[in-house]
Amino acid sequence: MRYARLGDLLVKSGTISEEQLKEALSLQSGTGERLGSVLQEHGIITEKQLIDTLMSQLGVEFVDLNTYHIPAEMAQILPKSIAKKHMVVPIRATRNDVHLAMADPLNFVAVEEVRAVTRRRVIPVIAAAASVERAVQNLYSNQGAMQAIEDMQRDLLGSQYGTSSSPMTQAQSMTVDEDEADAAPAIRLVNSIIDRACTEGASDIHMEPGEDSMTIRMRIDGALRTIIPVPRELQNSVISRLKIMARMDIAQKNVPQDGRAVVNVRQETLDLRISSLPTIYGEKVVIRLLRKTPELATLSGIGLEGENRTRFCNLVDRTTEGVILMVGPTGSGKTSTLYAMIDRLKNEEVNLVSLEDPVEYHISGVCQVQINEKTGLTFANVLRSVLRQDPDIIAVGEIRDGETAEIAMRAAMTGHLVLSTIHTNSAVSSVDRLLDIGVEPYLIAGAVKGIISQRLVRRICPHCRRSYVPSPEEVESLGLPAGGEYKFYRGEGCGECFNTGYRGRTGTFEILTITPAIRRAIHARSLKELEAAMEKASFLPIMENCRKLVLDGVTSSEEVQRVLGGG
């Protein structure tokens, strides 16, 4: 590849004018950014125009890293530090050459450094910047963890001969940096795992001890994915590190423990809720990752569209007193919907108090109370106190018992709007749940104004989505009429979605607005009357929403069956 300046190439190809080049160079001055980035940031050219120009003018190959498989051994060709420093990734190599994917093939500093390190001729290929960054993360995701495991095993072997010091005696940093070379191996391994979880958007990390090893799994988009095994002999060191972070008792291994830690990862603050549980093979640890300053979910963001959005807005905007319930199993997005509702209702004219365990989002203008049952701050006790604080709207994070439910219902009947969640599978079953925990039918009938039931389904990755004609069995499983011409979609798997076929999640809903007929059926505890009243109220079950998502290509029939089963 011949040496050239990007600006000259773009002008020569007619992509930009001399005046635009001068403007871009002026904008670039003093920023330290590369010219291509400046041109794209200010809308002078698109990334596609840049790639097309470089391909035609330099004769470099373009590679789509979203579909290109990079062999795992490429991680041994180039150190991660250099790949991250220059944002480049080796995609194939021979004895004498290495093909280097990069967003800017004119970055000759990067080319020369890679050539010096690999001692191979570097052949640049061009790729989209975002795909290069993802490829670097994917290729090196386990490398830091594997190196830490090797170091821990070496230290363990050394300790048998008295040559190793304890990795836990070092000063403990609460900033996660997986590349911190001076840190003890146990610290680096834990940091690497947390860093990857943050990068891939995991909600939970599971460390599960087995007979031969401890398996690390992460819950990403609602599904658990195996990440890496940790040798059994290193299990205690990893768990001890987590216990130290969470200020748990490292000597106590036979009782469940809970703790928390606040860490900084990639300039983001994470709240870690750490729980340990004794098993036959040692302690299992689960880490819940909560972002301190996440963006509040919008109605579109949580999947409320069309008829469901209209029903939601009518319910929330027109209800000034009573109870609105968000229901669903664990991990179904109830809290996100509750926060979206709080954000919609808050204003300077109302006193809105939220009782939460834990406080996951910090919302300005809302009085948020952290529940702490160890100190007596239970939902029921705090709710009694809040009623003496002149509230207009009360958000109760979760109704867990009959006492909390009854107080909430009575508060609603005395002129307050109460928002809360409860763990049930459907809108109808939430009524049964309230009856089971001891709430009187007349309180439920009088207080509850609406019930929003929801689940989360994974979105098909837009980069590898393909259509197909479903089998009659698939059509039947969704309750669609037989004999119709249907087009379903599925994801084939690519670099964008870590080869899962899915990327991100969306909500699927059923919204039950309590009508006088439904109220009478609840009071009479008559299931038959309730079903008739719901049908008359044009109630749309959650499966109806799922069918639309499948037909629109948002999710797959397999995902609907996974989440709803026979539904």
Helices, strands, pairings?
Elements: H1 6-13, H2 18-28, H3 35-41, H4 47-58, E1 61-62, H5 80-86, E2 88-93, E3 97-102, H6 108-118, E4 121-126, H7 129-140, H8 143-159, E5 175-176, H9 185-199, E6 204-209, E7 213-220, E8 223-231, H10 235-245, E9 257-265, E10 268-279, E11 282-291, H11 306-318, E12 322-327, H12 334-345, E13 352-356, E14 367-370, H13 379-386, E15 393-396, H14 402-413, E16 417-422, H15 427-436, H16 441-447, E17 448-460, E18 465-468, H17 472-477, E19 488-491, E20 502-513, H18 516-524, H19 527-536, H20 542-551, H21 557-564
Helix pairs in contact: 1-4, 8-9, 9-10, 13-14, 14-16, 16-18, 18-19
How much of the sequence lies in strands comes to 15-25%
Figure out the total of helices: 21
Mean pLDDT: 85
Give the uncertain stretches in residue-range form.
160-173
CATH topology of the largest domain: Rossmann fold
Major beta sheet summary:
7 strands, mixed
Q: Total domains, how many?
A: 3
Task: Look at the structure and give the CATH class of the largest domain.
Answer: Alpha Beta
Q: How many beta strands in the DSSP annotation?
A: 20
Helicity range of the residues?
A: 25-40%
Cα shape: globular
For the terminal residues, how far apart are their CA atoms?
59 Å
Tell me which CATH architecture of the largest domain applies here: 3-Layer(aba) Sandwich
Strand order of the largest sheet: 5-9-10-11-6-7-8
Decide which structural class fits the backbone: alpha/beta
The CATH homologous superfamily of the largest domain is called P-loop containing nucleotide triphosphate hydrolases
Q: Specify Rg, calculated over alpha carbons.
A: 28 Å
